[in-house]
Amino acid sequence: MDAPHDIGRRLAAALQRHAGLHGSVEGLRRLTGGATKTTWSFDLLTADGRRPMILQQTPTTTASASASASASASASVSVSASASAPPGLSAPKLDAAEDARVMIAARAHGVPAPVVLAILDVHDGLERGYVTERVEGETLGRKLVSDPAYACARGAMAAQAGAILAAIHTMPVAELHFLQRLSPAQELEVYGDLLARTGFSHPALAYAMQWVRKNLPVDWRDALVHSDFRTGNLIVGAEGIRCVLDWEIARVGDPMQDLGVLCMRTWRFGGAGEAGGFGSREDLYAAYERASGSPVDPVRVRFWEAFSNLKWAIGCVRRGLSVRADGSPASLELCAVGRRMEEPLWDFFQLIEA
Known about the structure:
By secondary structure, the chain is of the alpha+beta class. It has one domain: Aminoglycoside phosphotransferase (APH), C-terminal lobe (Aminoglycoside 3'-phosphotransferase, Chain: A, domain 2). Helix content is 44%, strand content 15%. The chain has helices at 4-19, 63-74, 96-108, 141-146, 151-169, 184-198, 203-214, 256-262, 281-292, 298-321, 332-338, 342-353; strands at 24-31, 38-46, 49-58, 116-119, 128-133, 223-225, 234-237, 240-244, 251-253. It has a 5-stranded antiparallel β-sheet with strand order 1-2-3-5-4, sandwiched between helices. Strands 6-9 form a two-stranded antiparallel sheet. A two-stranded antiparallel sheet has the order 7-8. The termini are far apart. 44% of the residues are buried.
């Protein structure tokens, strides 16, 4: 890995080249982050003052990236052992430039996405990635749903989330031609193929696959779907939601999917509210309908909540079975994630029985 000094020097040059910003990089530090990205926080000191920023990189050569790639390549759901996704279909995963373009489009449509300052290219010597303005706030789910400091925020967040999702779902997508369009049936086929490729079988997974197939929605309108809109991917301040993060699995599909993901028990982090652990479904749905002018379909939301639990169970299987090039387990952490498969499956069965 490059030394922070070298990264800072290249960052300053990249910001001058792409954004016309002249300054020096200070306070560069690596943050704890997701499995597939490297995140750095820094300040750009310019003649006009200090500007807080974030560098997101998508590494391709580090050991952690290799382990993550193995996990991603091996985890998905399958309808049957012989099922395979149609040519060209796969679980959506945007590259860094596409991810940034979605955020730029979202910001232009009034969605509180990060402000993108520069999209990096091969000439910058910084891996693929982008630079955004840094938004201060909290992202830790357990803290957001329980800390008294965020009590006022929790009172507003369900309505804020409903309005934000309404804005996301009315975004024009014509210029985002790289986004995959997945119908509910195609989602099932894609994730079924992923599971089949792991070679793992389990009666509860098989039953869940059959239930999803039998309950696929037959009527929906296409919209841009964030697909990972949940507590943990929101930056929150005392007043509520400040920014929506992690757009890299966005797609075009049924917008009710986003409401279902937000209501998953996994992403409530022990909070009492069915919407993200912080609020009620009623407040979420009412705000969405006010802002979008379209009714929420509670049956489709529950379907996507159940299906999303199945997808997360499949994700746990894939991570638990991921291996290094020599065939050894990718990491103890990923093995531990694999053992959590039962939690989303339990939530799935609780939902379909209700």
